[in-house]
Amino acid sequence: MTQAEFETIAPGLRKVMMSVGRNFFGNESDADDVAQEGLVALWRYRDRLDIGQTHEGLAIRIAKHCCMDMMRKRKESVQLYGAIPPDSITKEMPAAQSPQEILETDELQSAIEEAIDRLTPGERRLYELRQIEGWELDEIASKTNISKPSVKSIISTARRKIYEELKKSLKS
Question: How far separated are the first and last CA of the chain, in Å rounded?
Fold first, then answer.
């Protein structure tokens, strides 16, 4: 796909990614970040995209991955601040993070952990190998003696369950 072809489909894909980000995080700022990260990821793979096909499914999947990556990064920053004495947080905290944002991030981290805890043991094991340990699908399949399509399906199901649990917990 050429740059011009990508530029013609990008606005539609951006709307789809914004919708996923908005549904996941509940705000425009994070949704915009999801769309931006997602479009950058699509741009990297534009030479593999066919102009005649619809790419909305791919855009949704990439946006979901971006949401999970953003949550993982927030979790890491909360863990960093957890070791700092409370009275020094405001001095050492980046200007972009207010105490309210830190509390929201902590709440989000708890919701993620609860959602992961609700997975079946098999789903949780494969999800953690892929998302936390960073293993490739082939590696997981060979180490667990589960076929690659089954590994992919189980991880996808786990992600969907986590996503749905987070949506429920963030709405309440």
Answer: 43
